[in-house]
Amino acid sequence: SGAEGWVELGEPAVERAEPTGPVPVVAVVGRPNVGKSTLVNRIIGRRQAVVEDTPGVTRDRVPYDAQWAGRQFVVVDTGGWEPDAKDRAAAIAAQAEIAVATADVVVFVVDATVGSTDVDEAAVRMLRRSAKPVLLVANKTDNAALEIEATSLWSLGLGEPYPVSALHGRGSGDLLDRILEALPDPPPITEPGERGPRRVALVGRPNVGKSSLLNRLAREERAVVDSVAGTTVDPVDSLVEIGGQTWQLVDTAGLRKRVSQASGTEYYASLRTAGAIEAAEVAVVLLDASEPISEQDQRIITMVAEAGRAMVIAFNKWDLMDPDRRYYLDREIDRELRRVPWAIRLNLSAKTGRAVDKLAPALRTALRSWEQRIPTGQLNQWLTALVQATPHPVRGGRAPRVLFATQAGVSPPRFVLFTTGPLDAGYQRFVERKLREEFGFEGSPVEVSVRPRK
Ligand code: GDP
Ligand code: GDP
Fold first, then answer.
1. 105-111 and 134-139: which strand pairing?
2. Is 152 within any annotated ligand binding site?
3. How far is residue 413 CA from its own chain's centroid?
4. Separation of 78 CA from ligand 1 center, angstroms?
5. Best residue among 207, 212, 294, 300 to mutate for probing ligand 2, ranked by most atoms within 8 Å of CB
6. Is residue 205 lining ligand 2, measured as CB closer than 6 Å?
7. Helices within 130-252 (DSSP H only)
8. ipTM field
9. Is-contact 213 202, C-beta < 8 A?
10. Ligand 2 site, residue 341, Cβ cutoff 6 A
């Protein structure tokens, strides 16, 4: 049945994948013993994947971080399918299906010293039904003489076979170049050196003490700086040195001139708040600790969380706190701030200066969480243990499985769970909560999305 493959001759071997996320996924599939693990080791540049000599040993799908020519991607070693399984074709189909559904690019490995087998051909049929780019690797091409064998794999109809020796490294650089060409376009890179001071929004309803805090910071700290070399600062922003670091306080001109109350209706004030949050990386939401948390306070907190910004909630006027109110405040906080338990909380007083020195460390912690990246290996080690200990509950006789996860981005951290089907909202929240317990993310929102295989 290899004849069908010849129809494909002359067509472009690989199309560029549609972008599915900032960190692309490459799946390595093929029969057992063709050299998938060896190839994955070669791609990630270290001996981490387990090489099994026993055919039919099924490994877990393990993702690894890889890098080539400055490009980051994730390689998934799909393990071997059971050649002795009763319904072999079905097992192959399932394997190929998962690989195809979760990957941006599929690397299909064939043993060139054996040539194509009917198992390979069955897998090719599955792979070709998908729209994913497939790269055909003729592995174990250890020398030039064996390249003739590799050429015969044109018959599989997957375009040009790439002769590679995963064991000795022969041809692996060319293969990696081809993989990069097939990956979706990379996101634009911002150079860390180009970054100016960190941008902070100081927000809160009128009279919570924003101007007082800004004045306190400007007074206590050495100076309000006017400019930082090489950066342009919006005239409505202020540069303030807090805790030995220069920060850009977004849209604070009005505050410094004490004209905020005169600047119009609540509607315009809230537009201005939204604008400041949008322009900032981290927000300090000021609350008046001497008064109950109001709906307006809640709206501002929600704005920050929904904008995906890091957040410090500062209870100002702590000097006015009496023990009675103190007792009720803890319960009030549990109730009113339960949707943002991750926000860093500070109890301070702009008037007395209490705990104002805690602000800079809190901002630094929140930003560190906001930009935290969990290595894929570490993430999946944790996830595997979690879903083994607490699998998804069975619904109507079936339970979706979580296959693996990748971190799709930072600022804020975003995670993608690859699954066999949609997850219950409750289970997704459970995974999110456990993710925080394990990795922290104090002061930062975290997004978790699910990519069920189609
Ligand atoms: P997998 O089951 O597809 O993951 O295959 P492995 O990576 O475990 O490799 C199976 C066997 O093939 C091992 O003994 C490897 O050392 C060997 N092997 C892998 N790549 C090559 C290669 O390029 N050339 C040769 N000669 N042997 C290889
Ligand atoms: P803004 O509208 O948020 O800028 O608030 P202001 O800074 O104008 O402060 C409103 C009122 O609260 C003023 O009368 C301040 O003196 C007072 N205030 C601000 N911070 C504190 C504080 O920490 N303790 C006390 N007791 N009063 C404060």
1. parallel
2. no
3. 5
4. 14
5. 212
6. no
7. 147-151, 172-182, 210-220
8. 0.65
9. yes
10. no
Q: How many residues does the chain have?
A: 454
Q: Kindly give the confidence (pLDDT) of every residue in the chain, 454 residues in length, as a single tens digit, with 9 standing for 90 and above.
A: 333 323 223 333 445 554 444 678 899 988 888 998 899 989 987 654 454 444 444 455 667 888 888 888 888 877 655 445 556 656 655 666 676 777 889 999 999 999 998 888 888 887 888 778 999 999 999 998 888 888 889 999 898 999 999 999 999 999 999 999 998 876 655 555 556 799 999 999 989 999 899 988 877 554 444 445 445 556 678 888 888 888 999 887 666 544 444 455 666 677 788 889 999 999 999 999 999 999 999 999 999 999 999 999 999 999 998 888 888 888 898 899 999 999 999 999 999 999 999 999 999 999 999 999 998 888 998 999 999 999 999 988 889 999 889 898 899 999 999 898 899 999 999 999 999 999 999 999 999 999 887 5
Q: Is the CB of 443 under 6 A from ligand 2?
A: no
253 annotated ligand binder: yes
List the end-to-end C-alpha distance of the chain, in Å, as a whole number.
27
Contact 106, 91 (CB under 8 A): no
Among 202, 205, 207, 284, which residue has the most ligand 2 atoms within 8 Å of its CB, making it the best to mutate?
207
CA distances from 206 to 202, 277, 318, 413 (A): 12, 16, 17, 32
3-class SS of residue 102: helix
- Whether 71 has a binding-site annotation, put simply, is no
Q: Is the whole model's pTM more than 0.80, yes or no?
A: no
